[in-house]
Inverse folding.
């Protein structure tokens, strides 16, 4: 059963009618980690904001359905956000320092969440908070719970944020670039920790990132997003070894350890910013293989086994 | 030493550093205020009744019996000026704190909620700002009745706009930080977020503004009392004392108006210096 199932979700700016996300379909099974990859402005953050009901003013869900643990997220004709689903979603955000209230001690912040979400008493919540801090690898929870965020290192703050995300026991965890603000050694520790914590397989994790290295080490599945449109979906191994969509190929060729070969397309991809009012494929302007059809009509999803490619010309063989 | 204990000892040390090695203005301001408060607390116990009149002793110049001289009714000016410290400081600080609490709350609510609430609160603030606080207080008293309480309310309302603007501006930037959506996701309502997160994080600037406002409030209160609004004679208050004494200046008897004016100056100066010093310290 999919814990998170999003079907043909469209987001648009209400005033101008531009579509920010088009036909985004995501499905995450219990126990799996799915990477949502895309460059800046590809709409990956908008997507996670939509799931949390935190879209900025003027951006609305214009089509599609979404369910988290079997409960619809958007209700009614206006597709308004149902705040009741918030207890099924937890967030680990990009900047751990900004994710904690600078004027409140760590312990108090955690207790607040536990009391709100799990209806715990004060003492019970305090004990649970210590237990959670231990679980995320903090060896002296008594010190940390008395500290303010500015007294902890970035890595420690991120551990606290992860502990808080775990504390609500939500079936779906959204990790929005969880390691971007940390230095490399800490990144590895945090990723390892996340992987360990998710090993029990009770949750579905959506890992939003632009870091392909993180994806390849963490995720079972990858969704490649460009210009608000899904380009390619598939198991991580398959996508990395045999990219089908021109954009995916271009993306992988940009990696440092890519071995140049004769059929590289990198040199032939042109530079152009994303045009959100375009009718056709969002990548058409840059794609070396694009035709009139690509500019005119949005590509349909071509499915084959575990993989999906949204391209007029390149199906999975 | 554990971090916890370091934390515990860091706080007084920080305060000591603030008072001891802080800039000269701040130290002078704190010193002036401390002296004023001390005189205000102890003085009335040692001095004669500020309202005791003495026939035949009117308008005595400053001398050994009456250090500040006496007024038209033979009342000791030192006793009256010192007795007024309590009233004026309590009123000034009370008004400033009330304006700070109400103004910051309104500003935080407006900044966090945005939309129509923000519009309404900010237009209301603009309307308030169109009048000088003093005139606004005069209007409140004119509409509600001439009493100390309504005067204090009037000055409070007149002092609020600055706090509203300050805390709204801070709330606007604060609500964009990740911990606000995270807290929403964790089930906090608007009230919980405003009181638990927005207010504690935006209160710094309004707190500093409070000291300066206390000075202004004392000036406003004295000015209103001078006009006969709010504090009424024979209550000892700097404004009313100046108003009783200023006509004597023409005949060369300067002391009935001079000493209350001097104390008022010291009080306002003290608050101004503290406010300046604190904002310098905060921005350094």
């Amino acid at each position: 059963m999919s814990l998170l199932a999003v079907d043909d979700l469209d987001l648009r700016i209400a005033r101008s009618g531009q579509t920010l996300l088009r036909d985004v379909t995501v499905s995450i099974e219990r126990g799996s980690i799915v990477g949502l990859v895309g460059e800046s402005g590809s709409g990956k953050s908008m997507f996670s904001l939509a799931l949390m009901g935190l879209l900025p003013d003027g951006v609305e869900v214009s089509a599609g359905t979404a369910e988290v643990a079997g409960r619809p997220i958007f209700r009614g004709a206006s597709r308004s956000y149902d705040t009741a689903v918030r207890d099924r979603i937890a967030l680990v955000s990009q900047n751990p320092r900004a994710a904690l209230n600078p004027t409140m001690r760590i312990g108090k912040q955690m207790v607040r969440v536990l009391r709100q979400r799990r209806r715990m008493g004060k003492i019970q919540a305090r004990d649970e908070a210590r237990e959670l801090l231990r679980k995320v690898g903090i060896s002296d929870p008594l010190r940390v719970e008395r500290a303010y965020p500015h007294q902890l290192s970035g890595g420690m703050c991120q551990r606290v944020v992860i502990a808080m995300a775990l504390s609500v026991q939500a079936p779906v965890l959204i990790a929005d670039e969880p390691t971007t603000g940390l230095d490399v050694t800490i990144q590895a520790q945090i990723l390892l920790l996340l992987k360990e914590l998710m090993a029990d397989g009770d949750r579905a994790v959506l890992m939003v990132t632009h870091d392909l290295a993180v994806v390849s080490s963490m995720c079972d599945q990858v969704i490649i997003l460009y210009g608000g449109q899904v380009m390619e979906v598939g198991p991580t191994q398959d996508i990395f070894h045999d990219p089908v969509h021109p954009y995916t190929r271009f993306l992988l060729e940009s990696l440092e350890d890519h071995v140049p070969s004769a059929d590289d397309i990198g040199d032939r991809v042109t530079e152009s910013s994303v045009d959100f009012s375009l009718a056709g494929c969002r990548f058409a302007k840059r794609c070396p293989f694009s035709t009139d059809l690509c500019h005119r009509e949005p590509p349909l999803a071509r499915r084959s086994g575990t993989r999906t490619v949204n391209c007029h010309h390149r199906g999975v063989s | 030493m554990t971090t916890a204990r370091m934390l515990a000892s860091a706080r007084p040390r920080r305060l000591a550093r603030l008072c001891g090695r802080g800039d000269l203005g701040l130290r002078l301001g704190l010193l002036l205020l401390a002296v004023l408060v001390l005189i205000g607390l102890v003085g009335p116990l040692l001095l004669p009744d500020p309202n005791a009149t003495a026939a035949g002793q009117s308008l005595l110049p400053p001398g050994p019996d009456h250090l500040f001289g006496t007024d038209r009714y033979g009342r000791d000016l030192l006793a009256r000026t010192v007795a007024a410290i309590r009233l004026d400081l309590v009123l000034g600080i009370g008004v400033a704190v009330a304006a700070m609490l109400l103004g910051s709350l309104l500003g935080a609510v407006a900044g966090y909620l945005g939309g129509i609430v923000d519009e309404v609160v900010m237009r209301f603030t603009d309307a308030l700002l169109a009048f000088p606080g003093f005139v606004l207080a005069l209007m409140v008293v004119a509409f509600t009745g001439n009493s100390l309480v309504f005067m204090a309310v009037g000055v409070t309302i007149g002092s609020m706009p600055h706090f509203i603007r300050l805390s709204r501006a801070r709330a606007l930037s604060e609500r964009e930080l990740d911990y606000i959506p995270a807290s929403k996701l964790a089930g906090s309502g608007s009230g919980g977020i405003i009181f638990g997160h927005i207010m504690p994080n935006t209160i710094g600037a309004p707190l500093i503004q409070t000291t300066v406002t206390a000075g202004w409030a004392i000036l406003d209160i004295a000015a209103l009392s001078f006009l006969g609004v709010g504090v009424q004679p024979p209550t000892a208050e700097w404004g009313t004392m100046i108003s009783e004494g200023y006509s004597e200046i023409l005949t060369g008897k300067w002391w009935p108006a001079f000493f209350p004016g001097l104390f008022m100056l010291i009080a306002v100066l003290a608050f101004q210096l503290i406010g300046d010093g604190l904002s310098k310290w905060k921005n350094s």
